[in-house]
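Notes, p. 3: input format for complexes.
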Amino acid sequence: MTPDTTATVDPYRLPRHVIPTRYDLRLEPDLTAATFSGRETITLRVEQVTSAITMNAVDLTIASAELDDQTGRRLSAAIELDESLQRCQLRFPESVRPGEWRLHLVFQGKLNDQLRGFYRSTYKDQSGTTHTLAATQFEATDARRAFPCWDEPDFKAVFATTLVIDPALTAVSNTQVAAESIDAGKKVMRFADSIKMSTYLVAFIVGRMEATKPIPVGKTAVRLWTVPGKQPLTPFGHEIAVASLKFFEGYYGIPYPGDKLDLLAIPDFASGAMENLGAITFRETALLVDPASGTHGELERVADVVAHENAHMWFGDLVTMSWWNGLWLNEAFATFMEMLAVDDWKPEWKRWDSFSVSRAAAFSVDGLQSTRPIEFPVRAPKDADAMFDVLTYEKGASVLRMLEQHIGPTVFRDGVREYLRTHAYGNADTNDLWVSLGTAARQPVPELMDGWIFQPGFPLVTADMDGESAVVLSQQRFTYLQNKQATEQSWQVPVRISLGIGEKREHRHVLLKDRQMRVPLPEGVTHLLINEGGHGFYRVRYSPALLRQLLDTGLDRLAPIERFNLVSDAWATTLSGLMPLPEYLHLTGAFREERDKNVWAVLLDSFSFMNRLVSPNERPALEACVRSLVAPAVHRLGWTPEAGENDLVRQLRGELIGALGKLGNDSATQQQAAERYERYRQDPGSVDPNIIPAIVSILAHTGDEARYEAFSERYRTAATPQEERRYLFSLAAFQSPALLQRTLAGTISGGMRTQDAPFVVSAVLGNVYGREQAWSFLKANWDQMDRLFPKQGLRRMCGGIVCLATPELEQDVREFFGTRKIDLGGKTLAQYFEQLRIAVAFRDREGASLKKLFRSQ
Ligand code: BES
Ligand code: ZN
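Output follows (857 residues plus BES):
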């Protein structure tokens, strides 16, 4: 067969007639010149006669490429780079016969500042001197920026890395150091062979880094690494790293697949963290925290991210999706396992309750016509990047939770174990998972699950009585904007029903397969609750009579997650036009006594949403409405925790105070905040950390230039990553246009890290006093932002446009992205546009009612 016919039709995929099995990789970074030189020997299995080899490479210069078959024959290749397809073609003067070959490459590259590939990160030490370190970020498709390779997840190989570095520095990679020596004034660090793994999991970090003492978990030494001076912030992250590693070894029934486990905090980092086998990298806020001054939310974030990345060591690293369309097998699982591990570590945090917020985030995208199925075709790198979204993570994790609850946690775990054992060191697809889970569950899983993975959207389950003796459940696809075609879809929905018969409870589990189903009821049912336990990935709409009964029985009879769903479903149906706004507002009145932070979060979010829609002269009335809802709750809780109060109530207090001071614009709260802040500055230990973010943002909201200066200074000199972040984002919360202009200008000049800058722009887009200014700024500086910001950040920044909810701005937004032909990958932009459309349509539809309601307060 000639080589050209083996090439796949898809120009983004590599042909499969040459398979790499091992990379012996040697890299020599020069941190001062911001360059690196590299050499590698790739062991190959040639499966068909060929005279050409195609592999991935981008932004590299390749000096030479030679093949040898270990009998002394050497073939030198002509090298052709295709920058747009990010690949290079090696053409040999004669044909290469099947068998084992070694490919030798010599190449050079730049240490970039784009936070991908092999890149530079900088930090200042205590004396103010700037230092550089080099780190890698390869997922999804950026290993090819550091060394030429077969950069697709199913070309798994063994990696043996050697780093040649300045003797004053240290280096970390995926495995243990096998040998260290000095050669020609350089430190040569050779790392042990890795397991067979994908290119996107390779990592190396070079710089002045300090490590904790290792804590052993079985045979695995677990360490945390930081830049000098930050070691005091490691114990909390270390503890969850150890606890979750133990938990996963138990759950998966398979030992940790690496030979050591390092977790490294990198000062510049595009995402939250990255699961490189044995060398997990994090942004600092996701690993380092001071438990004494951190809020519950900040501590939970660290626990989440650490547990999530550790979960990947099996799900993702040991067993990997075959291609990026199946990314959910990595990310949904890691998210699901993250919940299990954190819940096991701190059951009092009620992690599955707060997961409701994530499920709701998935609903809000999955209710769009521009949503996509969890599994979705991917070709170009941009589209692979766009897969890292709430559908992959949060919808994916939600449907796993639903399945786990449906077949039972033990059966589910057994299926997972079987799946990991069967595909260890290899790749897998969705169907492989169904086979394993189906074996464990002794029931066919595809019929049940395919609809959730391969269809877009989710069902709205409507409940209505059929006389006294039965309830009728029906399903249709939930949409915000009505779409006839979508109503044809259906799912297999595991529905749990709780029946109240006076003081007694009965439970029903049914599988709603058809469009409609009649569930007979026993006598004397006084109320019923659909989606008991709250794990189902569907929304519920009650008939008015059923809703009334449910409210009449008392909300305190429901679990927090069920109350959350009640409000969240009601608000979603209000947005979609199925529930009139006054009815929703009436419902919120029933929650004045609420004590759950997640339920409050959904209530407050709905008011923030409305705050973006009302005109400035209606705003005072909306503020009054927020005050009437929130003030009694703040009053009940007070500003200081009671002795022995749990973390969740502490966090709730912070959220409520923040809402009352900003959204409610309550002057007494603003004054209290100023007083408490003074007290906190005098004696940081005297104020509960959980209310500090609220206080800081209230002070920004009402702040003048002097306060702006003070907060900017505190951002620059913060003692912890969390404090730095808090003051940075406070700069987006001021009201004065002049001050907001300074914040915006700072995002593209003046040293703000590019890992943060796009999120700051997005925060100003979300500030009703600054959004138009931020939008003008974004338009005027787009090219620079596009060049400067990590791609992921840029995409997230654009998410802020959904706040530009007036018809004029909406028009302008569409025009800007259209004429510039901006593509954020996948369906990202279409989803932002549609979310904006929904907001503007809601404003048109409910405008009169908003006016009336917020005038009558
Ligand atoms: N594999 C991802 C990191 C990643 C994200 C790589 C986007 C490429 C693009 C990692 O496991 C991850 O999911 N990180 C999350 C944090 C997690 C706790 C949800 C992140 O970075 O936000
Ligand atoms: Zn992940």
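The CA atoms of residues 62 and 507 lie 67 Å apart.
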